[in-house]
Amino acid sequence: MNTNRFRSIEQLIEGVATSDGAGVKLTRVLTGKLQQRLDPFLMLDAFGSDVPDEYIAGFPDHPHRGFETVTYMLAGKMRHRDNAGHEGLLGNGDVQWMTAGRGLIHSEMPEQEHGTMEGFQLWLNLPASRKMSSPWYQDIPSGNIPEYLTPAGVTVRVIAGSSNNIAGAIIRPDTEPVYLDVHLPAGTSFEAEIPVTHNAFLYVYRGAVTVGDTLVEARRMAILSNTGDGVSIQCTENSRLILLAGKPLKEPIVQYGPFVMNTQEEIHQALDDYRNGRFI
Known about the structure:
This protein is mainly β. The protein has one helix at 264-275, and strands spanning 9-14, 16-20, 24-30, 41-49, 59-64, 67-75, 78-82, 87-90, 95-99, 104-110, 117-125, 136-140, 147-149, 155-160, 162-163, 166-167, 178-184, 189-193, 199-206, 208-211, 214-217, 220-224, 230-234, 239-246, 254-256, 259-261.
């Protein structure tokens, strides 16, 4: 990697506190106004609480069309069920990768009454040619997620794409996403390649890190510039972050709640199909 080509931080983002589902409290880190800049990523929610009332009601049945959802559980237990007959239980460190495609109705409900529930849900767009594809679903147990340890002692979990020649648990076409969970002990640094074609950002969920001359504190997202083929990260305290990169689709994005299509007409069709029982 050319060390002169490290990406800098273009913008720091503080998430917006909100609630979703049946009242689950969360932080919306990537919002609609950033969809064009961070194409193909549509949304990133960070959730984390040890107060059961803030998560216990979960996410009852709701529809999706036109994109993929990626749920990464850091802690807790969440049960997924959908109207295609899929069911799975996510636990500590597990990932669920779901392609809604032409339409799916699912629920995500906690299976715990106390303790911490923490993790992320990412929405990843699909190209126009695949928005009406068949729904697809995969649970990835924590033990099946490849990880490696750098000489400096940094642990890297490769959820999607590849990092330092380690292939991730998921490889996806079109958007070619890279999704890393990086654990940095105090005083260490980490370098990762980022394809020059990709938009990229990182989100710090423990500690704080420095990219170039910019400090990124916990619960902040850093949008990386598009100049460079990598990123260099340093820290002075134990820190953890997720690093994401994806190849932009450069297609129109029209969203109405849980439906993301390319035209308003397709949104009207999605609503009609959902209301008339044509999802699955």
